[in-house]
Amino acid sequence: MAPSALIADLLAFLAGDNPTDEAFDQLALALFAHQFQHNLPFQRFCQQRGKTLRTVKSWRDIPAVPISAFKALTLSCIPADQAERTFMTSGTTQAEIKGQHHHPTLAVYDASMLLNFGQRFMASKGGRIRMGILFPDETLLPNSSLAHYLALAVREFGTEASHYLLTQQGLDTARAIAELDRAQQTGEPYALLGASYSFVHLLDALQRQGKTFQLPAGSRVLDTGGFKGQSRELSMQDFYTQLSGTMGIPASQCINMYGMTELSTQFYDAGNASLPSVKSGPHWIRSRVVEPLSGEELPRGEQGILAHCDLANFNSVTTILTEDVGVAVDGGFLLLGRAQGSAAKGCSLAVEEFLQAAAA
Length: 360
What we know:
CATH class of the largest domain: Alpha Beta
Strand content: 15-25%
Radius of gyration: 21 Å
């Protein structure tokens, strides 16, 4: 199938309502065939595992590529320089090699984000909300998938008065306080969105000034990405307790988004009134909990490494093996943190196996 036809089918699938398991499998297999043909490192890995067009019968059979492989290899069905946009992982040190995810067109990524965000964060209520963004814009971070994600949120769901609270000079605390005061006084709902660590910096700044707020009904928070050594570490319970207490927003309206540069789709919870919260995605992404080296799916309720099959990843690989520990539960999965000990070793061995196969 030509890429343009594949993209058209994919966009139609994203926009569809309640597609069947058979329809998901059919599109997953079409994408697998496309990537097997045009993404040579992926093809070699599949062949080493005995996974070919003849043996892969379901999305569950598609080998999961370790997420770190995006740092070592070009995982793309087109030459990287032909991509409309390349998103890069943030990296925690200047010397760290950054993973790259190449998008021939942003049409699929954007459709995935907007459909999912509209339903999960905006709760399909329609209308717009005044937004404050606790993250740099796309001018400052042109290769950041989160910067693009937040720019889409502002463009499609924010009012004209929406604004960025993080600039080249750092956190604009005065503007943040003015906006929170305004929302409290006018009763107009307000949304704060950004990196989890930026919320910690805002909470610390408000605490130093003795500021707390009671934001109006309909106000909400979206945080993502964890703390990454960019702020003080907080337990999830303390984080959402402080957010709720400082902003006057119920923890049930404090939404966490779980996403990554290597995926084109995000997961959300339904608020953090109880922890850990159940994460789930839309109908075009499915998750398994696996043993990292063999890729074998673990019994329900058993902890393992999360693997996601994201149909919106049409140009790279649909199925990735994360380094996150999770457990499958009703309605989705629980995210339990980064792999440690034997699980982390299993992830490292999986990466080594992939790189050896890809170089063969």
